[in-house]
Amino acid sequence: MFTFKMFASAAAALALSAAPAMADCAKTRTDAAAQAAGFQTIGYQTASTAKKPAKAAKGDIIDVAVGAGSFNTLAAALTAAGLVDTLKTAGPFTVFAPTDAAFAKLPAGTVDSLLKPENRAQLVSILTYHVVPGKITSNQLLEKITPATTVQGRQATIDGRNGRVTVNGVAVTAADVAASNGVIHVIDTVLMPPAPKSH
Length: 199
Hints:
34% of the residues lie in helices and 19% in strands. It has ten helices and seven strands.
């Protein structure tokens, strides 16, 4: 599994704690949809539409996610897992970012449990499963199935056929959110890494 170093100064700059993140986690899906509307939506777009250049980056992946306002739980989880450092480095990275509403869909108590220090390894595994090395834009994904090895080490299957993109069956609701060190694709459900293969 990919190992990350903690970046205390960046984490402090986020000024996020688990408590406000959990409160924000209760935001409605309408809020998430409104936020996603500000991004380039990938659903049912044509190939020519997908080739539009991403908007100019306004910071790294962490800055963009925090500024968007609908990724508070993700930002708090990244801080708790000590992953802020890497996602503020040069990268590049492709992040499939679950919204607060996506985290709210998890069974009650799941996020609280994952944010506990004793469950850090599991949290790191889940979060790094949402990150793929390199910058992958939507026009590279359409009309084909793309297996991608995540930073966590296990593969995710990206299906860009039929004018839309899914990751392990989870819909990408907005694509090509530009960051200085990569790109964010918004998803509406938290991805869970597959169980380790038994020998």
